[in-house]
């Protein structure tokens, strides 16, 4: 069982090297029950610990944006809508052979309460309670050219028997395990160096 867990951890962190140059944008739903709020607080505390230890460059916590822009032409600093943001995430997943389903889902909703006479149904995007977007530290997430390094949760090998979805908790655990392994190797190296100097 431990070997299986180690394999899962190595897989989920395989393409996330050099995290010290990565900024993480943590997106969460604004209206969650207290029990889930505690879980989100735990995720934020773990991100803070990774930042404090230098494993990641920085992080930011945001609520998921609205589906569409609020019609305020005076707001020149507006960020992307939920549709724009998720579309960018989906492009990243497609380029790497992943999918964001089932964590992210598109649902068609009729504008008419009865669904009659509606030629263009509204497409709503269901987002996870919490998700992470990994960007290069010096890039702006609002920019189309921003370098997106990863999105969690994501699913590997979609529509196959090997399909596997990685959650935010699993990703954080993999990074924390990797951090612990690096510290252990560094400590052993330092001890060996000290012993060699005493001979």
TrEMBL record:
Feature: compositional bias, Basic and acidic residues: 177-191
Annotated segments matching region Disordered: 177-199
Record's protein name: HTH domain-containing protein
Organism: Natrinema soli
